[in-house]
Amino acid sequence: MTDLSPDLPRDPRHDPVLREEVIAALAIAPGERHVDATFGAGGYTRAMLAAGAEVIACDRDPDAIAEGQALVAEADGKLMLIHGRFGEIDRLLAERGIDAVDGITFDIGVSSMQLDRDARGFSFQKDGPLDMRMAQEGETAAEWLNRADEAEIADVLYQYGDERQSRRVARAIVAARPLSRTGELATVIRKALRHPPGAPKDPATKSFQAIRIHINGELDELMEGLAAAERVLRPGGRLGSERRGPPPFSRRRARCAPARPKRRATRARAPRRCAARCAPQPRPGRPN
Ligand SMILES: C[S@@+](CC[C@H](N)C(=O)[O-])C[C@H]1O[C@@H](n2cnc3c(N)ncnc32)[C@H](O)[C@@H]1O
After folding, report:
1. d(Cα 275, Cα 107) in Å, to the nearest integer?
2. pLDDT tens digits, residue range 101-157?
């Protein structure tokens, strides 16, 4: 089992909760080639490098790539950092002459940097432009909410946020259009759900999560990423994941792999063939 130094520094910008467990489960041997499919602040990449791996990391967010350049310089040729979607990781690797890897790891969801920066528009706790695009291109949350019909919005809130009062919230959103700020949207949702100030769980949580998943096509990406991982993992290769998954991730994952409880590190061989049922059709013009 990999001996990951407990002294490995944690990045104050984003601290992956299960880093040690996931890295141990990957059982990295020095000199192996591993993919960190969700680079973020590079917590997993640092741990893989410390375990002696050569790392190819990717992220769809250009800020993550720009901020990761210092680590590329530190890694002394052992880290390749790519801007792109993990749904096409096999193509991104092939373009760089790599056709197989020993491991691939996904830390699914939004990073703390994305949530904490008002201007990215992911958080209902901060007022900012209603954006929510990880890749910083394509349709913003405001553009979608201002053009979609009520039924489409309700479906997204229900399916990706498990919002039981999705129709009521969608009706309130449509009545309040045009919306342009996260603060406005949060207020509309709270009013629609008659939220008493100071109640423990903010009722905007589920809707914000659902809209973010929709805007970034996150479920389709996950399915495409798993199918791509199957194509690039060499025999005996390992698939690792950390997932603070909302229910829709769990439901869809259950079709590809045995259901697992939330928040656990997983290690698996390359997924068995499931692409026929699970892999979504590519969405034309999807941003990185
Ligand atoms: C939870 S954070 C990862 C944090 C990282 N493990 C660390 O230690 O800092 C998820 C990251 O994955 C990126 N991401 C999400 N979906 C992606 C996709 N389909 N392709 C590439 N990157 C993606 C996000 O932009 C974000 O930076």
Report:
1. 21
2. 999 999 999 999 999 999 999 999 999 999 999 999 999 999 999 999 999 999 999
Domain hosting 27: range is 19-108+217-256
For residue 287, the CA-to-ligand 1 centroid distance in Å is 15
Any ligand 1 atom below 6 A from CB of 86:
yes
Residue 68, token pair as written in the block: 């990761």
Question: Is residue 278 one of the residues assigned to a domain?
Answer: no
Q: How far is the CA of 167 from the centre of ligand 1 (A)?
A: 31
Query: What span, in angstroms and rounded, lies between the C-alpha atoms of 153 and 147?
Result: 10
> Do 223 and 212 share a structural domain?
no
**Ligand 1 contact, 42 CB (< 6 A):** yes
* Alpha carbons 41 and 203: distance in angstroms, whole number: 29
> Can you name the residues that pair with 214 across neighbouring β-strands?
none
Same domain, 155 and 203: yes
Residue with tokens 């990185």: 288
Residues with Cβ within 8 Å of residue 27, at least 6 apart in sequence: 1, 2, 238, 267
Beta strands at 233-243 and 266-268: parallel, antiparallel or unpaired: antiparallel
Same domain, 150 and 183: yes
